[in-house]
């Protein structure tokens, strides 16, 4: 008998998840020490799946361009996956980490790694790479080449995407079409402190809204873990970034299951009913009603 690749390996009904909303603690070692504390707290609270924020080993270094920063990169597998894998094994967790990957000499990626106990279940290399003031990621990262393929774990199939990917509905849809049971986004996004308060709030609300829309459009739960705290521009040119936290867990109708504060480190816990996606897709059959025969122009940059 053939088992579908879309089957949940544990046929779970409920899944307890945790998001570690953290700030930069000044060094790789201090950041990993804080993550270890958070993982232990999450496991003690009954969490089975833990999502970390984007590039959690360091400050968000993409505010400026410096060749010295490439020294922060590491291979996969490497020291961080080994350390977090040992913790995942000890605490019986699935952990979604976010690393500056050195793939080869002069070739680097922004990569999410899924650790299922001590094993690397899979990884995702960020596909959409921004190049904007304060977010000069194209200097550091090559576009991902692993596609939009969910990672199969003992808890189900995880549709892992990274930060800037969260603004693109195509990425979430392709993960859903490949059988993802959850959408997960490690993130590092925040305000320019010089922007007025009303503009800052519009940006934060847009970020939350677009992701809730992905949950609704695909009938999937969604986890988004952002960093928090102010980080100065290391080049002293920009105003720095005040990362807005606001990590959240959404159900498949976009409803909030848990929501973190803007301005503090926080362990966010939520319980997800994995049966609801099937129920919702029966009454809101978006995948059934897609007009795939009419979407060919989506492969164009623009319809002139």
Provide the residue-averaged pLDDT. 95
Count helical runs: 6
Share of helix among residues?
10-25%
Radius of gyration computed on alpha carbons: 19 Å
Order of helices and strands: EHEHEEEEEEEHEEHEEEEEEHH
Question: Can you walk through the features of this model?
Answer:
The structure is a single chain. This protein has helices spanning 28-44, 79-91, 169-177, 197-218, 276-283, 286-289, and strands at 14-21, 49-52, 94-104, 107-116, 119-125, 131-132, 135-136, 151-153, 156-160, 182-187, 190-191, 222-226, 228-231, 241-244, 248-250, 256-259, 266-273. By secondary structure, it is of the alpha+beta class. The chain has a six-stranded mixed beta sheet. A six-stranded mixed beta sheet has the order 8-9-10-12-15-16, covered by helices on one side. A three-stranded antiparallel beta sheet has the order 11-14-13, covered by helices on one side. β8 and β9 (156-160) form a beta hairpin. α1 (28-44) runs parallel beside α2 (79-91) and α3 packs parallel to α4.
Task: Quickly describe the structure.
The protein has 304 residues and is of the alpha+beta class.
Layout of strands and helices, then pairs:
Elements: E1 14-21, H1 28-44, E2 49-52, H2 79-91, E3 94-104, E4 107-116, E5 119-125, E6 131-132, E7 135-136, E8 151-153, E9 156-160, H3 169-177, E10 182-187, E11 190-191, H4 197-218, E12 222-226, E13 228-231, E14 241-244, E15 248-250, E16 256-259, E17 266-273, H5 276-283, H6 286-289
Parallel strand pairs: 1-2, 2-3, 9-10, 10-12
Antiparallel strand pairs: 1-17, 3-4, 4-5, 6-7, 8-9, 11-14, 12-15, 13-14, 15-16
Helix pairs in contact: 1-2, 3-4
